[in-house]
Amino acid sequence: MSPAASPRWKRLEPDERREQILECATRLFGERPYAEVSTTDIAREAGVARGLLNHYFGQKRDLYLKVVKRMLLMPGLEESVTMTGTLRERVERSVEWYLDTVATHGKTYVAVTGMGGIGSDPELERIISEADDVAAAKTLEFLGLKVEVGNDARHRAMMRSYGGLVKASIREWIRGGTLSREDTQLLLSEALIVIVRDVFPQLAQQDGPARGDARAPKTGPKR
Amino acid sequence: MSPAASPRWKRLEPDERREQILECATRLFGERPYAEVSTTDIAREAGVARGLLNHYFGQKRDLYLKVVKRMLLMPGLEESVTMTGTLRERVERSVEWYLDTVATHGKTYVAVTGMGGIGSDPELERIISEADDVAAAKTLEFLGLKVEVGNDARHRAMMRSYGGLVKASIREWIRGGTLSREDTQLLLSEALIVIVRDVFPQLAQQDGPARGDARAPKTGPKR
DNA sequence: TAGCTTGTTGGCGGACCGTCAACAGCAAGT
DNA sequence: ACTTGCTGTTGACGGTCCGCCAACAAGCTA
């Protein structure tokens, strides 16, 4: 008889196995809520023993965090869009690019960023918040706005808040279709313009005619 | 000897007991994430057997939903604020009222509305979305804006999206203090004004001078 | 082919949750 | 004051899920 008819399981490089498990986990976490995806499900989907998940990722929660991290790392904004024209034009193009990117990830993006997976987990919030910071910094940089360091924390916080609007409207768009893509883009562009004007009031005059009702006081922290 | 020295437990009316459990659950869910609050914890906190929670609320998830519901029902906006003055003034007052209300609920509100509790649960999302609708409708009504029924779904979706901005910025404010209350109020007011102008473009001229760069097309679904 | 490295398995122990039959507080009836 | 009955409440049982770890085996090397 053949010396080793067929091995009962195949031995993979750690990186390969890790990647394979990550993909299965990503798919399942996109289909069902966090609590309803058991490690047994993921293991079965990947065709491995359940204990292997703990071996590679530690806790189930850690595996989920890895999934979120990989999902939120969005590649190259700056290479794919030109940054010319008025502030409004640039804003609209960057929002458009962002919606394109999200559209490719689809439901998994919504499930991960949205009402969440895990319940208010500090680590998860840190990761998402960090990803929001990156996205915000990219956007601001793309808009050609330099961050003066004194207000950095405040500006980042404002952009993270804007991220809340982004996610909520995208959820409306992707999930139920209660907003069309045009609606979403309009909403996000207008809001971003307003925020930029508040955070960087000195740039207001760059965008064509100034607003009629410019609030003279309290456009920034008193200095 | 005394006939019944002291009963080992006290018998309460169902409504009383329910309320007592709800309060303990509310406190605990405000302190820790959903998954880290066991029904045993809640039962111990309330000085009650664990099975009683299931008797009154069914699943642990149902108890959590009850907590969220009670948390999101915010009483009387319309009675407490006058609705006179320009659109900007009314917006700023309503935002201010909302921030006051949230401030009283504190961390629990943030934990409940925020990154959530349960993982993307349809029922939970329905509840939160419904509460957002109520808050949005109250706000719009308070602003003196009548909803024309044709665009109702779209308008509600936009206001729910705005709710995402509200929650995110409030989280920045309450949690880490990365935004001051003034920052939060400024951000939310400006954004709300913009949204109202987009959703109800015909009301733009009510608020002083019109914007210089008013977008003539695509201010609504084509009809 | 024998030996060694290490990727992988499978079961153990513990935590948590939903259910349900039995128990007991307590108010009404005698 | 004692008994009866209603029902609020308890405590344990069965099941699921997860983290851990010793044993196992795939596959390279000599």
From TrEMBL, chains A, B:
DNA-binding region: 38-57
Domain (HTH tetR-type): residue spans on this chain: 15-75
GO molecular function terms attached to this record: DNA-binding transcription factor activity; transcription cis-regulatory region binding
Pfam families with a match to the protein in the record: TetR_C_46, TetR_N
InterPro entries with a match to the protein in the record: DesT_TetR_C, Homeodomain-like_sf, HTH-type_TetR-like_transc_reg, HTH_TetR
Keywords for the protein's UniProt record, in alphabetical order: DNA-binding, Transcription, Transcription regulation
Matches recorded under Gene3D superfamilies: Tetracycline Repressor, domain 2 (1.10.357.10)
SUPFAM superfamilies, sorted: Homeodomain-like
Protein name as catalogued: TetR/AcrR family transcriptional regulator
Source organism of this protein record: Corallococcus sicarius
